[in-house]
Amino acid sequence: MTYGIVLTYTVTPRWLALSREQRNAMRAQHLEPVFAAHADRVKARFFDAEAFNGRISDFAVLETDDLGAYYFLIEALRDTPVIAEGYLAFNDVFLGVEDGFHAYERALTAANSERHR
Fold first, then answer.
1. Residue 53: C-alpha distances to residues 6, 27, 57 (Å)
2. Cα(67)–Cα(41) distance, integer angstroms
3. Please, are residues 87 and 26 in contact by the beta-carbon 8 Å criterion?
4. Structure pTM?
5. Which residues pair with 72 in a beta bridge?
6. Cα 110 to the chain's mean position, in Å?
7. Looking at the DSSP assignment, which residues form a beta bridge with residue 60?
8. Residue 47, Cβ neighbours under 10 Å: how many?
9. Residue 101 CA to chain centroid, in angstroms?
10. Which of 8, 21, 73, 76 could form a disulfide with 56 if both were Cys (CB 3.0 to 4.6 A apart)?
11. Rounded mean pLDDT of the chain?
């Protein structure tokens, strides 16, 4: 199964107080390597939302076939100074299964076929 995850987060005033150069350096030093280390198992796309939403500043759309890999990605991110030192906070997480009803229908058909043998 392929899982889609929307990970919402908010950058804090502490992050915004940094210069853009400092933010870019922290992103390059701490965040990009974590996503790169998991890129073979978790695909990530990033979106800015602060101009359209008052609760969150950003969100990531993640895709994976391996929820364990997603979990390890989040744990690795939490170990970075960006999150551990309060520059960014996770908010809501939405998880879905891509076309999950198809997988269910296939399993249901297979189970029915087994019962009628």
1. 15, 23, 7
2. 9
3. yes
4. 0.87
5. none
6. 33
7. 7, 46
8. 12
9. 23
10. 8
11. 95
- Condensed to tens digits (0 to 9), the pLDDT of residues 23-65 reads 999 999 999 999 999 999 999 999 999 999 889 999 999 999 9
Q: How far apart are CA 58 and CA 20, in angstroms?
A: 16
Report residue 67 as tokens: 């929820």
Task: Give just the sign of the alpha carbon dihedral 27, 92, 13, 86.
Answer: negative
The β-bridge relationship of strands 88-97 and 58-64 is: unpaired
C-beta neighbour count of 99 within 10 angstroms: 11
**Dist CA 4 CA 83 (whole Å):** 22
Query: 79-92: buried (b, 16+ CB within 10 Å) or exposed (e) per residue?
Result: ebebbeeebbeeee
Pairing label, strands 88-97, 3-11: antiparallel
Rounded CA-CA distance 14/23 in Å is 11
Average pLDDT in the 10-24 region? Answer: 97
Query: For the chain, how big is the Rg over CA atoms in Å?
Result: 18
- Write out the E strands in 49-86: 58-64
